[in-house]
Design goal:
The protein is mainly α. The chain is 73% helix and 3% strand.
């Protein structure tokens, strides 16, 4: 085996030597064939100034050298592999298949290389063509550059020529300026010489005139020297006067006389005053015009709104009832119906009709069914079984209610109003208190047209706080006291002017139109004089049914309207909807904003009523954390405040104008 390997190594080395000799011969032939052509081409290109690439003609030789070197490298391995195949008989099939696979791959790669040889030759050809084009373009650029250089030299020569012309022109201008200055000096000297000559001539003429005067002194009868001096002085005065006259003309040519100036100034002042007054009048008229336009637009809107409401009412409303049909139904006939219907609208007439019908039904009832002992039943109505109907007259019920009010006002320790009412009936009627409670309750629930019954029912059912009734009575009493104080003669009479003064002092926050309404309710009309007398006691009288006069009723209506306006202002200042929730500190802050004159006690009373908290449990203003936890719906707050006596304590502070 060793001898075989040694023989193979010798054969390989001898074969390598032969192949190297063949490669040298081929390379020598290629160099000899290509060297003269490549050398001549490079020499020609370099002579015309083109850069050449020396690697182009040697690329083919390099590729042949690489092929031969690769073949020489793989040849020993191939022969060694063949020896292994011959010696290892067991693995001969496997090694033979491996060799065949490698031989096939090498053959395939050789075929691919031979297929790419034409493409490589074509690539060399294209490269040579591109080089020729580049050389041609460079030759053209070189010619163009040489032409531009020549043009540049011509332009530089032209610029030099223009600069020389400019320098020559500047020197010529300098010479002309010098000549002009000399001519100007010469003409100036000549002008001065002429002036001197003219002055000399004038002087000679004056001397000749003087000599002629000296030669004939008898003509003038004066001393020639004196006349000469006078003439000279006169000429000087004439020259000075002429100069002053020219100065006056120059300075005061546009000046007018003071009298004309003062007259024009006065006229201008009068016109300016007229213009200012006209401007003021115009502004007033313009503002009035804008106000009238706004009123006109609002009137148009109201007219359209009323028209649409009228159409809607005409479409949906039922025909007006014929109230004269009630004359034959109501007890008392026509006269009583006219007395009941006087001054009432349709809604009020319906109430009157219902009261008459209900009164008849009450007279027919002998018993009332008891309402039981439920928690929602008022304490004075808690009873099981039938209750006797006492069937009192309307007058008797009103008298009982008045007596109840007297005892309530005289009571020192206040208890709940329903409990007080039942205790009053027990004290008055004993065991029949329940019967009287049911009877009175049915009457006051029915007769809403009666002022005493309506107010008593509202307080009894906790729709209104009794403080409202008490405060209103105190207001009426205070007003009567003020009128009595003004009536110094105790005659029971006041003038309309005194009545207006008393109303304004008692109600300082009422508007002028509200005062006017009260005076009209008291008997004043536009044709009345301020000195007309009025019996003020008649303003506070009540009839047998407890009905107040129009004056007191108007006071009550205005109080309710002012309460509604106050609560509406509170809602608008809060900026919330009725369904929204509001906190106690927010209500406190808003009340102080719309009514800064509220004292702490009154404010706490309002908050106590709104949030149903005792005054002792109200958190102080500093404890914001506790107050924020007290939340209630705005609608509930407004309804609870509407039940109590709430009114403005002072004017609202106006926001400062911008």
């Amino acid at each position: 085996m060793a001898s075989k390997l040694q023989n193979s190594s010798f054969s390989i080395t001898s074969r390598e030597k032969r192949e190297k000799a063949q490669v040298r011969e081929k390379v020598g032939e290629g160099q000899d064939a290509s060297t003269p052509i490549c050398a001549s081409t490079r020499k020609h290109l370099r002579s015309i100034g083109v850069m050449t690439d020396d690697t182009l003609p040697t690329e083919t030789n390099d590729s042949q050298k690489r092929k031969l070197s690769q073949k020489r490298k793989t040849l020993p391995y191939r022969e060694v592999f063949e020896f292994f195949i011959e010696d290892f008989k067991t693995y001969k099939p496997l090694l033979s298949s491996i060799k065949k696979a490698y031989e096939a791959m090498l053959a395939h790669q050789s075929e691919k290389i031979r297929a790419l040889e034409p493409l490589k030759a074509k690539l060399f050809t294209v490269k040579a063509d591109c080089n020729e084009k580049i050389l041609a373009m460079r030759a053209e650029e070189k010619a163009e550059i040489s032409m531009l250089k020549k043009e540049k030299m011509n332009l530089l020569k032209l610029i030099d020529k223009k600069n020389e012309e400019k320098i020559s022109l500047q020197s010529e201008v300098t010479k002309l300026r010098k000549t002009l200055a000399e001519e100007y000096l010469r003409y100036l000297t000549e002008r001065d010489a002429r002036k001197v000559l003219i002055a000399d001539l004038n002087e000679l003429r004056y001397q000749r005139e003087d000599m002629s005067l000296v030669q004939s002194p008898g003509i003038w009868g004066e001393d020639p020297m004196k006349l000469t001096l006078a003439l000279k002085m006169a000429r000087q005065d004439l020259a000075r006067t002429q100069m002053e006259l020219n100065t006056m003309k120059a300075n005061f040519g546009d000046v007018v006389p003071r009298r004309d100036f003062e007259m024009q100034e006065k006229t201008n002042k009068d016109l300016q005053e007229q213009l200012d007054s006209l401007r003021d009048d115009y502004e007033e008229v313009r503002k009035e015009h804008e106000i009238l336009l706004q009123l006109h637009m609002s009137t148009l809107k109201e007219r359209d709104q009323f028209h649409s409401e009228l159409q809607e009412i005409q479409r949906t409303s039922t025909p007006r009832p014929d109230w004269t049909k009630c004359e034959d139904v109501i007890a008392g006939g026509r006269d009583r119906w006219h007395m009941l219907a006087e001054g009432k609208n349709s809604d009020q007439l319906v109430d009157v009709l219902l009261e008459e019908i209900g009164e008849g039904l009450l007279r027919e009832k002998d018993f009332f069914p008891g309402l039981g002992y439920g928690e929602n039943i008022p304490p004075f109505l808690r009873f099981d079984g039938n209750v006797e109907n006492k069937k009192p007259s309307k007058q008797e019920v009103v008298n009982l209610l008045k007596e109840a009010w007297k005892e309530r006002l005289a009571e020192e320790q206040k208890e709940k109003f329903p409990d007080f009412f039942f205790n009053f009936l027990e004290h008055r009627f004993g065991p029949a208190a329940v019967a009287w409670a049911y009877t009175i309750f049915e009457h006051i629930k029915l007769f809403h047209s009666n002022e005493v019954m309506r107010q008593f029912y509202a307080i009894l059912m906790r729709k209104v706080s009794e403080n409202v009734y008490i405060k209103q009575n105190e207001t009426v009493t205070q007003l009567l006291k003020e009128m009595t104080n003004v009536d110094s003669q105790n005659e029971g009479l006041l003038t309309m002017e005194q009545l207006s003064t008393v109303l304004k002092s008692t109600f300082p926050f009422k508007k002028e139109e509200k005062i006017q309404e009260l005076m009209e309710a008291g008997g004043w009309h536009p044709n009345s004089s301020n000195t007309d007398l009025l019996n003020y006691h008649t303003l506070f009288k009540e009839d047998e049914m407890g009905q107040s006069t129009d004056f007191v009723q108007k006071l009550w209506e205005q109080y309710m309207d002012e309460k509604d306006e106050y609560l509406l202002e509170l809602k608008q200042e809060l900026g919330l909807e009725l369904r929204d929730e509001v906190t106690l500190p927010k209500v406190r802050e808003t009340l102080m904003t719309i009514d800064p004159s509220l004292d702490k006690q009154t404010l706490n009373g309002y908050l106590n009523q709104a949030f149903q908290l005792p005054v002792t449990e109200l958190p102080p203003e500093e404890s914001d954390e506790k107050e924020k936890d007290i939340v209630l719906k705005l609608q509930t707050v407004l309804e609870r405040l509407h039940m109590v006596d709430i009114r403005r304590k002072g004017p609202r502070e106006q926001a400062p104008a911008n």
